[in-house]
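Why run this: before we spend reagent on co-expression, it is cheaper to look at a predicted model of the complex and decide which construct boundaries make sense. The entries below are exactly what would go into the expression plan.
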Amino acid sequence: QKKKENLLAEKVEQLMEWSSRRSIFRMNGDKFRKFVKAPPRNYSMIVMFTALQPQRQCSVCRQANEEYQILANSWRYSSAFCNKLFFGMVDYDEGTDVFQQLNMNSAPTFMHFPSKGRPKRADTFDLQRIGFAAEQLAKWIADRTDVHIRVFRPPNYSGTIALALLVSLVGGLLYLRRNNLEFIYNKTGWAMVSLCIVFAMTSGQMWNHIRGPPYAHKNPHNGQVSYIHGSSQAQFVAESHIILVLNAAITMGMVLLNEAATSKGDVGKRRIICLVGLGLVVFFFSFLLSIFRSKYHGYPYSFLIK
Amino acid sequence: AEPSAPESKHKSSLNSSPWSGLMALGNSRHGHHGPGTQSASSAAAPKPGPPAGLSGGLSQPAGWQSLLSFTILFLAWLAGFSSRLFAVIRFESIIHEFDPWFNYRSTHHLASHGFYEFLNWFDERAWYPLGRIVGGTVYPGLMITAGLIHWILNTLNITVHIRDVCVFLAPTFSGLTSISTFLLTRELWNQGAGLLAACFIAIVPGYISRSVAGSFDNEGIAIFALQFTYYLWVKSVKTGSVFWTMCCCLSYFYMVSAWGGYVFIINLIPLHVFVLLLMQRYSKRVYIAYSTFYIVGLILSMQIPFVGFQPIRTSEHMAAAGVFALLQAYAFLQYLRDRLTKQEFQTLFFLGVSLAAGAVFLSVIYLTYTGYIAPWSGRFYSLWDTGYAKIHIPIIASVSEHQPTTWVSFFFDLHILVCTFPAGLWFCIKNINDERVFVALYAISAVYFAGVMVRLMLTLTPVVCMLSAIAFSNVFEHYLGDDMKRENPPVEDSSDEDDKRNPGNLYDKAGKVRKHVTEQEKPEEGLGPNIKSIVTMLMLMLLMMFAVHCTWVTSNAYSSPSVVLASYNHDGTRNILDDFREAYFWLRQNTDEHARVMSWWDYGYQIAGMANRTTLVDNNTWNNSHIALVGKAMSSNETAAYKIMRSLDVDYVLVIFGGVIGYSGDDINKFLWMVRIAEGEHPKDIREGDYFTQQGEFRVDKAGSPTLLNCLMYKMSYYRFGEMQLDFRTPPGFDRTRNAEIGNKDIKFKHLEEAFTSEHWLVRIYKVKAPDNRETLGHKPRVTNIVPKQKYLSKKTTKRKRGYVKNKLVFKKGKKTSKKTV
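The model came back. Tokens follow.
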């Protein structure tokens, strides 16, 4: 009994020492068996099984690792830090035997090894469904161990810096050209900017931003790439770009029609502008309509193009 | 910057083509006269030559113009009204969907009990046991409008049922919307564009989707109020008259009373003023208009009980206050300018403006921090931070209207308008003036909001109609008018002579002479009649396709009442599925008047409206924890659910089940949201992961997770469904909605019993049993004194008593002998 306590104290001490240096310890097979599997334990252990070696080409692992780092750091530097919970990781290339022992054939996997008893089904984090955001991991840990971790993300300064850079750039430009501020009064520039916003919105870029669809879909069987999503409920990024171009072309056609009628100049040239404008409007609109038709099943109308 | 309405050919309007007349409208006007005043003024002008009377009025261009605009607006109203009637003609005059049922119920209350009774109405039939103060938690504009119309009609002895008023209110208001759109577009561009815009908005699906007959909802009247407020605002900025601003405030007041979307107005108008300041377009007109609007509008908006002190206490309204302060500072500095030298003024100006802006900004932050101003509410916040709702507020994210918009829905709702309205925006910005700044801001902000939320397509639609009308009207003006003009030279001459004979009318003459010069130049460099007619033809074809599209969309997508469903057989005959009303009527007839019905919140308003029974939760999702409790009851097992239901005094439980007819909007498909919302409040008891299979799938068949197969919702949906064979090709208990054979066919209830199932099993109602008089024990009674069951009898005696048969089979009671089946 005494020996057991000694062993436990020694293990905890060692873990604490390591965690003072790094928030996550890398384990190989031996360490894993000693600290995670061997019985005298009074601490919970969260272990990430992963494959971070570059030759494994696991991009998900790297993202998951970043989130895991954030989580472990928030725990490491939180005021509630104690010796009840530790974070570890096993890389496939360092601890292949562990993977075999646990019958694990996918990485990354997060597992919780409770202080008492064997891990249950719910001790394996459901990565497929919940994703690996640090907040979700923290929720899962709170659920399994009653240790609440407030995830503290190192604030992402890149957005702020980019904004500051942009503002200073614009400000600097204005300052340099302070004697010639005519370009601010350039209506064409402003009109362009507003049309860009309008086109971005009407082609569903906001949907892309929120839902994050793939750029296009490649059929795994015959290698065909489809740019248009088959259903009216969703879209690909490529598709929204196509729509953006079509909308812009139709708008340009309308503007050209107006130009042709109002500008002063050679009549022949104006006739050509007029016909080009008309062609843009009619052709691209019928093209747009046919794309819409292919997506919205049962829509009966088409124009020029089936 | 003068409004650069393209050079006119307005004298052509005597010819018979409506288009030419339409296009020529509004060019002879320089000021702000409506068509009525215009015709009146020209009729009043001295006319020596032409005959007097009506024909004389018609021979004047303005007379034709007003007649044509009236006719076109009337036809637009008629077309808009009739294309919204699909649902009434196909089904019947019935209130649609969910929210309209609540509106109808409260309108009914208003009509039968009077206005004050309505304002003080405490509805004890909703949110049992909490109740709901209806008068203080609704935007009453809709009910009051409908109630007022009903009252007027009945005072005139036209007896109309309040339901019919409610059903036809939105189509009627669509006509008013198109008129106010006409007025607004006329202020922005010209009369021709205005008429086109009115026609567009009368039939555009983006607006019809919320205003078909029977869709008795706030949006139906709010879009009218929105457009009318904007019209009056533009008018007051143009004129700088307090009269128009007061009208604008009144209209704004109506808008506040009608819809929560008034926040859009109270942010857009300050934005307009702010941008005008930035563009150095400040004028006394803007100052008068905005100062009056802000003060009077603020006071009026606070009169609505539901709004109350929000306009001075929430962040949504702070932009308006900030711009108000800024405008005052700006005006003060402008005043100082006259007293100072230029150099002094410049330093003072920049110092003053930046100080004022900084002070306003800091004070808003300070007040928010100290809690005087509420921060942005979740619904508004999710418009900016688009990922916010998904993580933090499942109840907002669960509503399908709050999803972002794909390009398909833009095209579906707006068709050609969505491709052409950027052109209109282009023209507006290229020929900018005060009010076109407004429409540009309106377009950009509305298109952003519509991109974030499908629902806000509604606010985008009017501006799209206006801008596209401007684009189209521009094209028609150039390609229709000129040809006509050259065909009718005599008219020009006569009207010129007319001008010469009217020396008194100098104002008109000056304009006309200038235009006449440009006209004479034009024919030499015209594009030629062929090209012009081709352009016109194709444009008209596009517009025709738009009209056809609108009708098709309205008929197919937006005209289902969703209370009554219809299915079509192979031969085209129609089946009406009236299960909802059947079930609600059953509730109304067969249950106690004060019975409490538990259901998911979607059906709360319908139960209250049609069955007139008490509900626990409804579509006014103000109390998340109450909803989560219902969700928890639905997703726990029967015993745990029974405890919750007892504590909530539930008498009946209602579920929607679509498995028999393949109706996809049923409760099993919504079930994950119930689990999620319940998990948000009770994370210890409900875990979303328990309802998935090991592979993370949501399945109702045998592979589904046991928690799901035994939860209350599953059991209530599939009770006795395992016995039902719908089709010879499928096994019994085959769910048509999810295309799966259900996993738990042997469902038994302990605390519930089936009370009613509608014809197509769409609605199932269960009665919650009262607790037994004496509760049965869960375990076997403990045996205290063990009495041997058989008294000891010696073998000998038994054998002696009865005879003895060798190899006799011995039966043991209660044990089945193992049989081998052959």
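The first helix of chain A runs from residue 2 to 21. Chain A is about 55% helix and 10% strand. Bring this page to Monday's planning discussion.
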